[in-house]
From TrEMBL:
<dbReference type="GO" id="GO:0046872">
    <property type="term" value="F:metal ion binding"/>
</dbReference>
<keyword id="KW-0411">Iron-sulfur</keyword>
<dbReference type="InterPro" id="IPR015931">
    <property type="entry name" value="Acnase/IPM_dHydase_lsu_aba_1/3"/>
</dbReference>
<dbReference type="InterPro" id="IPR050067">
    <property type="entry name" value="IPM_dehydratase_rel_enz"/>
</dbReference>
<feature type="domain" description="Aconitase/3-isopropylmalate dehydratase large subunit alpha/beta/alpha">
    <location>
        <begin position="287"/>
        <end position="409"/>
    </location>
</feature>
<feature type="binding site">
    <location>
        <position position="361"/>
    </location>
    <ligand>
        <name>[4Fe-4S] cluster</name>
    </ligand>
</feature>
<dbReference type="InterPro" id="IPR018136">
    <property type="entry name" value="Aconitase_4Fe-4S_BS"/>
</dbReference>
<feature type="binding site">
    <location>
        <position position="298"/>
    </location>
    <ligand>
        <name>[4Fe-4S] cluster</name>
    </ligand>
</feature>
<protein>
    <recommendedName>
        <fullName>3-isopropylmalate dehydratase large subunit</fullName>
        <ecNumber>4.2.1.33</ecNumber>
    </recommendedName>
</protein>
<comment type="subunit">
    <text>Heterodimer of LeuC and LeuD.</text>
</comment>
<keyword id="KW-0028">Amino-acid biosynthesis</keyword>
<keyword id="KW-0456">Lyase</keyword>
<keyword id="KW-0100">Branched-chain amino acid biosynthesis</keyword>
<dbReference type="InterPro" id="IPR006251">
    <property type="entry name" value="Homoacnase/IPMdehydase_lsu"/>
</dbReference>
<dbReference type="InterPro" id="IPR036008">
    <property type="entry name" value="Aconitase_4Fe-4S_dom"/>
</dbReference>
<dbReference type="InterPro" id="IPR033941">
    <property type="entry name" value="IPMI_cat"/>
</dbReference>
<comment type="function">
    <text>Catalyzes the isomerization between 2-isopropylmalate and 3-isopropylmalate, via the formation of 2-isopropylmaleate.</text>
</comment>
Amino acid sequence: MNITEKILSNAYGKEVSPGEIIEVDIDLCMSHDGTSPPAIKTFEKIADRVWDNKKIAIVFDHAIPANTIGSAEFQKVAREFAKKQNLTNLYSHGEGICHQVLPEKGLVEPGKIIVGADSHTCTYGAFGAFSTGMGATDIAMVYATGKTWFMVPEAFKIEITGKLNGITTSKDIILNIIGDIGSDGATYKSAEFCGDTVDNMDVSSRMTICNMAIEMGAKNGIMEPNKTTLEYLSNRTGKKINSFNIFKSDKDSVYEKEFVFDVSELEPQIACPSDVDNVKPLSNVLGTHIDQGFIGSCTNGRIEDLKQAALILDGNKVHDDVRLVISPASAEIYKIAIEKGYIQTFIDSGAIVCNPGCGPCLGGHMGVLSAGEVSISTTNRNFKGRMGDPESEVYLSNAYVVASSAISGYIEDPENISQSLNKY
Ligand SMILES: CC(C)[C@H](C(=O)O)[C@@H](O)C(=O)O
Ligand code: SF4
């Protein structure tokens, strides 16, 4: 059995196989300021009390602080619900983006079943959990019963091998994979990432890869937790590593398809407008004009990403015709970035630093694009109109490339900009 089948078998209480429909207990259910209100509306038609006030997390991140009367109303509904149901995990004070906040607060553990009313809930696969996004009405049923059903997915084994060089990051790996497999190439599959590159990766890079599993249609993204990940989780949860339920794929487990990606020669990858699988090497798009850069999101708003941006921006100025918007993925990351001097560097360079949250990622808040404008962004989606007007365009890349491009005013090779890569 592979890791996903093992986690689902454990939750179901007997061995499962792909295609089977099972009902399981949920360990953690997440919704945010955008999706809690519709879930609450449905919930209130079917139940009075939630199944477990400690297993529901609500995070305000999509528009925080509220940007419209509508979002203020939504947040009021979610706040009142959390109070009435005595939820112990309400994060409504700008703690950060849900997918960053949940692991930080120690709510994620290997082997758990986690669902969320947000498509990037697949992020927690980086910690060896089965986690997936669901619609708000399905989440309402989980609020009420603590259960949901899944069809056990077939699995793709995606082996990643080789050592990344220089300015190539895990974002480039996942863009390369999605470019190859296609944005619907893994629909309802379990995308299992393995190989020496994944085994040696830090937590942040692993999260970036699992976060984007949904961008090829996957039901979940998953990795066996490595030592670094287990240490991180032990710190966050206050539990000993040997108390975790760690599952690993059997050597002879069966996959529907197997892929091998050697990343040792990989150059930074760019997803071009307006599909996430329209991926080209950086060298093919150099010189493309941009109006805005964004560094942040649940994909690449962590301290490692901010460090990459600071290394590039240090001593440089954002181009006069460009806005560079930077939003740390959580308040905790924001504080570390202040301590390390990154925020000072950003402000000195002329970047706009926003509070933690989704920000411009989905085109609703703090950096909306007008018709004809072009953005380069560390986020995960570049659909038509994703960051504003339907006639605007979005390129996706890593933080080195966004920062470099913001300085030049066109898509730029970071090697042409960086002068002091060892400063921090
Ligand atoms: C608003 C929310 C439902 C949506 C999602 O599910 O992914 C958003 O987070 C996104 O990234 O598009
Ligand atoms: S940062 Fe972007 S992708 Fe992530 S949850 Fe928020 S809107 Fe969705």
